[in-house]
Amino acid sequence: MPLRLSPTFRDALATERARGEAARPLVGMWVCSGSPLVAEICAGAGHDWLLVDMEHSPNGLESVLAQLQAVAAYPVTPVVRVPVGDVVTIKQVLDLGAQNLLVPMVSSADEARAVVEAVRYPPRGRRGVGGGLARSTRWSRVDDYAQDADRHVSVVVQVETVEGVDAAGEIAAVDGVDGVFVGPSDLAASMGLLGRQDHPDVVDAVHRTFAAVRAAGVPVGVNAFDLTLARAYADAGASFVAVGADVQLLARGSEQLAAVLAPPPGDAPAP
C-alpha cells in the first residue's frame, strides 16, 4: 500500500511564513540524551521542532533511528544534526528516514554546495541509491521516492565561524539550502570570545548573518538558550529558534530540587 511521508522542516517554515504578519518563529529544543523515551517526552511538550544531535551527543545510527520512531506519532518536526557534512554519514542518516538535516560548520558556498550534493541523488548529487532497503522509502512503500527525494528532504546549514558570517549571503543563495542556522557558541569561540555568546560583538555578528540570509530570501534561525536573547533574536527576524536542551533542563532542574533542602557544598553551617 503506498504511503506518504511527513512534511519537511522547509514545509513548516513556509507554512508559518505564509501567515504574514501573524507569523512567529518556530520554537525548538535539542534532544541530546540519546534516549528515545526522553525524545518522546520532549516531542509531546508542544515545541514546533526537535533537534536530535549527533555532533556533541552520544547518538549513533541506532539511537537516532529509535528517536525518530519515538517522536513520529507527535505533531513535531524532527531535525537531525549530523556530526559532519560527510557524504556517507548523510546517506546513512537519510536512509534511516530522517527528512530534515542540520549540517554544522559550513563556512563557504562551496561547502554548502557539497552538502546539497550529498543529499541529492545523481545526476544532481552524490547520494548513494539504496532506499528500497531502508526506512526512508518505508521499504519501497513510498511511490516514486527516488524521483521525488528532493521534495522529501530539507537541508539547513549551520554558520558558526567568522568566515561563515562573511559568506552568509553566498551560503544562503546556494540552490538546495532551505535554511541557515547560526551557532553563537562556536561563533563566539571563532571570534576569540569563548563562552561569551551574549557579547555585543557576537550579537552583532548574528544580526549581520540574519540580514545577509534574509536578503537571499532564505529562513534564518539561531541557537539561544538565554530566553531574553531568544526573544530579541525573534524580534530581529529569526524564523526558528532553539531555546533549550533535554540534558540542560534535567541538569538545572535536578540542581534546583536538590537546593530546596540540601545546601550546596560550602554553604553548610560550621559544626
Structure, explained:
By secondary structure, the chain is of the alpha/beta class. It has one domain (9-246): TIM Barrel, CATH 3.20.20. Helices cover 42% and strands 15% of the residues. It has helices at 9-17, 36-43, 61-71, 87-95, 109-119, 145-152, 162-166, 168-172, 184-190, 200-215, 227-235, 246-261; strands at 26-31, 49-53, 77-81, 100-103, 154-159, 179-182, 220-223, 240-245.
Summarize the structure.
The chain has a single domain, classed as Alpha-Beta Barrel (TIM Barrel).
Number of helices: 12
Distance between the termini: 73 Å
> What is the fourth-level CATH superfamily?
Phosphoenolpyruvate-binding domains
The CATH architecture: Alpha-Beta Barrel
- Indicate the CATH class: Alpha Beta
Strand percentage lies at 5-15%
- Shape call: globular
SSE pattern, N- to C-terminal = HEHEHEHEHHEHHEHHEHEH
Number of strands: 8
| Integer-rounded radius of gyration | 19 Å
Contiguous low-pLDDT stretches (5 residues minimum) are none
How many domains would you count in the coordinates?
1
Summary tags:
globular; 271 residues; TIM Barrel; eight-stranded parallel beta barrel; alpha/beta
Question: How is the secondary structure organized here?
Answer:
Elements: H1 9-17, E1 26-31, H2 36-43, E2 49-53, H3 61-71, E3 77-81, H4 87-95, E4 100-103, H5 109-119, H6 145-152, E5 154-159, H7 162-166, H8 168-172, E6 179-182, H9 184-190, H10 200-215, E7 220-223, H11 227-235, E8 240-245, H12 246-261
Parallel strand pairs: 1-2, 1-8, 2-3, 3-4, 4-5, 5-6, 6-7, 7-8
